[in-house]
Inverse folding.
């Protein structure tokens, strides 16, 4: 249904370094590089950084975020830890959460521009039989 998402960043080079570390645990790598945009993905660029050098930081209360699928709880935790180590900030530590239709394990971070990014995985359990891939 959704083909790709883009976030605006004020410093493209710094954001590429941040996201290379943060997205690696999720299996996403830099696939496309252009002068003002960089695309990350597994086989196809699904997550884009768009340079907006004069843009303001994203306020915390926009209500918008991007959620990326992780292969495991360890990957979610590594995503979060890398974001903190790279100068991002936490906006929801790794942990179990109750979603609209099932429980999941997720974490929320804010990149240096304030973009809210989530990583999630849906571990199987006796109470969670709706494995989502």
């Amino acid at each position: 249904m959704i083909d790709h998402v883009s976030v605006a960043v004020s410093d493209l080079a710094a954001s590429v370094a941040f996201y290379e570390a943060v997205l690696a645990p999720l299996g996403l790598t830099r696939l496309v590089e252009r002068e003002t945009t960089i695309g990350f993905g597994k086989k196809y660029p699904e997550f884009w950084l768009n340079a907006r050098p004069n843009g303001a930081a994203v306020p915390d209360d926009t209500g918008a975020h991007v959620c990326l699928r992780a292969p495991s709880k360890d990957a979610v935790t590594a995503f979060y830890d890398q974001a903190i180590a790279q100068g991002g900030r936490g906006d929801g530590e790794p942990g179990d959460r109750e979603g609209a239709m099932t429980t999941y394990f997720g974490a929320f971070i804010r990149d240096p521009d304030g973009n809210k990014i989530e990583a999630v995985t849906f571990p199987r359990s006796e109470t969670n039989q709706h494995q989502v891939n």
Summary: The chain has one domain: 5-53+64-121. The longest strand covers residues 89-98. Residues 5-53+64-121 form a domain with the 2,3-Dihydroxybiphenyl 1,2-Dioxygenase; domain 1 fold (CATH 3.10.180.10).
